[in-house]
Amino acid sequence: MPLSAGLAAGLLVATLLSASIGAYDIPLGDVLASLRHRAGLGGAALERVPESVLWDVRLPRVVLALLVGAALGCAGTLMQGVFGNPLAEPGVIGVSSGAAVGAAGAIALGLDAFGNWTVTLCAFTAGLLTVSVVYLLSRADGRTEVVTLILTGIAVNAFAGALIGLFIFFADSAELSQITFWQLGSLAQATWPKVLAVLPCAVAGLLLAPRYARRMDLLALGERPARHLGVHVERLRLAVVVLVALLTAAAVAVAGVIGFVGLVVPHVLRMAAGPGHRFLIPAGAAGGALVLVVADLAARTVARPAELPLGVLTALVGSPFFFWLLRRTRRRQGGWA
């Protein structure tokens, strides 16, 4: 309970600070007054410029960070639970690299069938298709073995990397800049329409995920005991993989490739609160949202007026931290096996 309260409080504080701080600072009291005014709870409207900055620029970005972070955190928790492996993350099944192929292909080939939404839609579609390919290739005799699924994901990720390399090779300078910017991950292009685009997938995934908590707890006992206790393991894995693909593809499509959120956040929460998924799944979503809001705030304020790529920042902080976790766990437990 203290951890849940800490996550909720941290999320509230980080959200308000992120709405207040930026290239154009808005006092926190003014942010609260404007929020209350729009909600019909008193307060007062701001002057034209701060009101526009807050509602047209700052808040869409903060809300998008909350949704993307929650989706990645929840997807990472589901992946680690269903694979029984604390090193699993959504990228293992190829959704991130598949989305990157879709985005890079749309940019390099100059596709514009859906206007400004073309890259986003291509990324989302390619991410889901890649997961479908990985899942179908890893099935044999009506079963999907975890090791086969992970190895297939590694092979498909490598193939996707080669495709991205080809697109980059044939791209001109402008297209190369767009592809690179997208791969580095960013929320700089956040708008309310983008928030509405990711909202249905994120909300659906976040609401459905807790339904599988009990079955994932039973699966943690092992496949055979879980089957004896009434869990249809194949059906559970398929459902969870679909949820992970939905959450991750939606997040990557609007924000680019942002690594380590889905890997580190569930791992840290599991170390702090144990392996129960009834807590881990919602906490993973809240923790992912908190991390991404803080990371985005740092990305646009640390090197003002320049903005650091969000995916680079999460990797810079996440990889040394995860290496420390690995060393700590190995020292305490003697390894993962």
From TrEMBL:
- Name used for this protein in its record: Iron ABC transporter permease
Q: What is the lineage of its organism?
A: Bacteria, Bacillati, Actinomycetota, Actinomycetes, Kitasatosporales
- Name the UniProt key words of this record, in alphabetical order: Cell membrane, Membrane, Transmembrane, Transmembrane helix, Transport
Sorted alphabetically, which PANTHER family does this protein's record hold?
Answer: ABC TRANSPORTER PERMEASE PROTEIN MJ0876-RELATED, FERRIC ENTEROBACTIN TRANSPORT SYSTEM PERMEASE PROTEIN
Give TM segment ranges: 59-79, 91-111, 117-137, 149-171, 191-209, 238-267, 279-299, 306-326
Name the InterPro entries on file.
ABC_BtuC-like (IPR037294), ABC_transptr_permease_BtuC (IPR000522)
Where in or outside the cell?
A: Cell membrane
The membrane topology noted for this protein in its Swiss-Prot or TrEMBL record is: Multi-pass membrane protein
State the similarity comment. Answer: Belongs to the binding-protein-dependent transport system permease family. FecCD subfamily.
